[in-house]
# Entry
Amino acid sequence: MKGFLKGSLKGVVFIAGLMVLIMLSSMILIPRNNREEDWKHDVQANGILAEPENTIDVLFLGDSEVYSSVNPMRIWENYGYTAYCCSSSKQRLWYTIEFFFTALKTQQPKIVVIETNNIFKFFPAEETMMHALDLFIPAVKYHDRWKNFKFEDLTKPVNNTHIENRKGYRLYKEAAAADVDGYMDENKDSAYISLTNLTYINIIADTCRQNGAKLVFLSTPSTKNWNMKKHNRMVKLSEELGADYIDMNLLIGELGIDWNKDTRDMGDHMNYFGAEKVSAYLGKYLSGTGILTSHKGDPKYAGWDKALKIFNDDANKWLKTLTSFEDA
Amino acid sequence: MDLASMFLGGSASAMTSFFSLTFLFLFLPPCLIVYAAVPKAAKKYILLTASLIFFWLVSSVLIIYLFLTVLSVFLFGKWLDRIQIKMKAALSKTEKEKRKELKQQFVQKQRKVLLLAVLLHIGLLLVLKYSGFFTQNVNSLLWLMNVPIELEIPKLLMPLGISFFTLQAVSYITDVYHGLVKADKNILRLALFMSFFPQIVEGPICRYSQTAEQLWNAEQIRYKNLTYGLQRILYGMMKKLVIADRLNPMVKAIFDSPNNYHGGIIFLGAVCYTVQLYMDFSGSMDAVMGIAEIFGVKMPENFQRPFFSISISEFWKRWHITLGTWFKDYIFYPVTSTKKMKNLTSNARKKLGNHYGPLVAGGIALFCVWFCNGLWHGSDWNYIFFGLYHFVMILTGNMVTPLANKFFKKVRLDPNCFAYKVFRIVRTSLFVVIGELFFRSPGMGRGFELFGRMVSDFSFTGLNNVLLKKLSVDVQDFIIIAFTLAVVFIVSVLNEKGVCIRDQIAKRNIVIRWCVFYALIMFIIIFGAYGFGYIPVDPMYANF
# Structure
């Protein structure tokens, strides 16, 4: 018994020592800024870290469907609402929830919009565990930062200064026509959402409720990723959670989506032109909720006007190079 | 999704890596806790249950293959045993002069049983692993002969570790036949020997006499076993995560599109692949040995510093040792000990002398060994070529040795001097790298194409930061790989000199011991190639 106690105590002290070392290395390795050169991952989405406190009205979460389809600049230009796309490529729900809580540390969005594509993406327990380690041990998440570590970082505090002018949106110029055969054909069945994913969604929904934020589910147009089975399941889930649900795949005509010109990769994602249509619809929807007020003219949001100008200049410069619409 | 996959949220395939979080945090700790908590008599059943659960989680319903193999091996063993008992009884009742004839009858009977058992198990392996390859080649032949028939290529699901447990099954039956081990009367002990979870993925290929009893008499976890085992697991993890997985993107980029690179870069890719394979496989073996050690089981070593070998022949005595000895014991010796081969040897000895004479029969046996070795590694011609390449290398080495010795004597050069030894080590490593180039190539034709480019266009032109970025590596990656390889090299040199590093660590005070652990863990956490930006690499030998 004495030996067992001694052994157990040794084990506890060893683990405590290891924890201290891990904490110290986490403090050293954590990126000091939210820029790519500081080894921050997904800098477009993490641009939200540098946005002034409580300045974001709408938070968009999800995978590449979001950053390809939702252009916060257009929403700002037409309605004066501030939106941010915390989206990343192949974003799993464990990452979605991480972005959600990261955003809540500095922002109080009135509306939280979750793109539904990744709700149906299954991910193994291995990924969940890796994410848990990433979340609690920055030394694991940013372990590769030794490659650009500088000794002055030791005394530098974390200071996120990099503001993303496009607010998480990514402009895609390419166009590749989609095959719409069988797209959104009638089907009475419902798709399956894993228990883990449902748990994550419920956590987001509960937190939105506690924070007084409106939860909205959004399915952006995608012939490759969306179908009626997923739609049916989302209708049921949104009813259960008392959330709004916008399925743009059933509003193709209303949005004016042209599957020959508005997708960058044969129906998988929207391109610039598709995003313009999606964002126009979203602006109208957000305005219709009556929750948001325009910040146009507010000096606190002057940065948004500057960002809009930069975005429009870039976009117009490119648009002028197109001899005809077909060039897109 | 099947039940086994659901149990781990689809992570079951990750279990094949002993360094996956699923294995390290979800599977191994409960096994150790339950194993430590139950009384000694129940420990073997815990090991068996854990092994079957492990197999089921990875292979799901294909566990039926394991059950059938265990059952079949058990019954064949008993059958052989019964014949041996009957033979003993009959011989004791028979007159001396008739005994030889009677014994021959029983031996014939035993041979038939052994043949049936071997055909059944190897046949199943051949069908599952090679029917696609065979059909593909038949189709190619039919196409060449202008026969308008195309056979459908079968796609059969293979259970985890079938190449490994089938060889264990055959070795057990053969050892029972030879009377080296007694047929096991306990099917559960046999099942544990066949399915012990650390060894089922990549080996080592154990003999019944090596591990069956150890596993069945499983001991309480001891402090020394625990710390030694953990140290070995961490050392293996360092080899796999810091070196092998860090090299993977570069190796993949070069072998996926070799047309983009000069011969020098392809050579670099082949060297890196050889290092990757060694670090991946030996790292996984360290984990296997470490896990087994925690349970108090000593498994046969699969590696003995192969890159210190001075010849290809020696290399294969140090690389994947258990496979090599299996081929030696169950193919080489049986072939050379047949009557025809013995006659051939004695005739050849008369004509060619004592050195070259035995090489004739030995060469035939060696050919069988290396043909099987190549085929065992995979169902493609490049694997067969890989085997035959080593056959030629070893046979040539055997033939040239006396001439080389004569030459050294004449020029008064000491073949054991350090410089020459280093030259031989480098030369052997170079031959190994060339073999691995074919091994990694997608098909034999591609292998020759790569080899041709490597020889005809040997240049490192364009090897700059831009190219490194294209290969998904940078200078820092090479620095950390070089540092870690230096650590592995120092450990290997010490091991070669008979120094047991773990014994040395154990002699130090607790501060130094813990510092070693901490350093190793932190080194892996910080310099391991995992997480964001890296694709997890499955254990490379699990596919064979």
Notes: Chain B has a mean pLDDT of 89.
